[in-house]
Amino acid sequence: MSNAVLKLADLPKAQPFVLSEEERHEIEHALGHYPDSRAASIDALKAVQKRRGYVCDEAIPVLAEAIGISAADLEGVATFYSLIFRRPVGRHVILVCDSISCHLTGYDELKGELVKQLGIQPGQTTKDNRFTLLPICCLGACDRGPALMIGDDHHGPVEPADVKKLLEAYA
């Protein structure tokens, strides 16, 4: 057994977060569309998420400075909106509508089949990082429930028997 003491200086240092040219351009473009820069908060967060898959903690102060608001204010926006991901997600995010309309039309059975096929619970990502399964309070597809989205693709009504083939389409 070693008596070595771990020192803070010995820990790996996080790389500083730097906006890409594409991200910076997209944020500047968004800023030009709003009279108040804080209105570009979601656009700025989405610009980073689109290219990196999620918004890491280190991005918040950099983005806040780019749009001219406090990091605390931007953190509030980032944690309020459920479609801003603050940790890594799979290549395909499955959003399963759990509104009352979808509950009445088969949400429990659909969720159960997704859990069975993916081998994960809501809020988790498959071991191969292919899928992340998340509930969402409404997809605006009450006439097509139970409904889900995979990426930007809306699906509904989705029967449990459809799940395997649907997942295979997102290989």
Q: How does this model look, in words?
A:
The chain is α+β, with helices and mostly antiparallel strands. The protein contains seven helices and four strands; from the N terminus they run ααααβααβββα. It has helices spanning 21-31, 41-52, 59-67, 71-80, 100-104, 107-118, 163-168; strands spanning 92-97, 131-136, 148-150, 153-155. Strands 2-1-3-4 form a four-stranded mixed beta sheet, covered by helices on one side. Strand 3 (148-150) and strand 4 form a beta hairpin. The longest helix is centred in the N-terminal third of the chain and has 12 residues, at 41-52. The protein is globular.
Helix content: 25-40%
Give the number of helices.
7
- Based on DSSP secondary structure assignment, what is the total number of beta strands? 4
Ends distance: 47 Å
Radius of gyration: 20 Å
* CATH domain class of the largest domain: Alpha Beta
Strand order of the largest sheet: 2-1-3-4
CATH H-level superfamily of the largest domain: Glutaredoxin
- Note the main sheet: 4 strands, mixed
Reported CATH architecture of the largest domain: 3-Layer(aba) Sandwich
What descriptors fit this protein?
171 residues; alpha+beta; Arc Repressor Mutant, subunit A; 2 domains; 4-stranded mixed β-sheet; 4 strands; 38% helix; globular
Topology of this structure?
Elements: H1 21-31, H2 41-52, H3 59-67, H4 71-80, E1 92-97, H5 100-104, H6 107-118, E2 131-136, E3 148-150, E4 153-155, H7 163-168
Parallel strand pairs: 1-2
Antiparallel strand pairs: 1-3, 3-4
Helix pairs in contact: 1-2, 2-3, 3-4
